[in-house]
Predict the 3D structure of the following.
Amino acid sequence: MEEVPQAACETVEAVDGVHLTQMAVGEEMSVQQFHIEPGAAVPEHSHRHEQVGYVVKGTFTFHVNGEEYVIGPGDSYVVPSEEPHEAHNDGEEPVRGIDVFSPPRPNPDWQD
């Protein structure tokens, strides 16, 4: 077993107001915390990784294939591999949650 203390993990601001913390990374999946400030957006992107997530606090909106999904506290979601998606926080409080990626996903390249 490998323990990954939160204090040992680096948080990056991938785009304005979108903070990602890479947590445990295994051979077949990885765990990432996210914090999305009010008014911030994750730009449309896709990746080879299947993504499942869980929202702990706040509400944000996903756009996937022309469909809108409002995800709030206690909700979970699945984004299939290669599915273009984007998300934004139009609320007044930060959104906090966890994403799990399979295969493991490093910090996204759209942060540049």
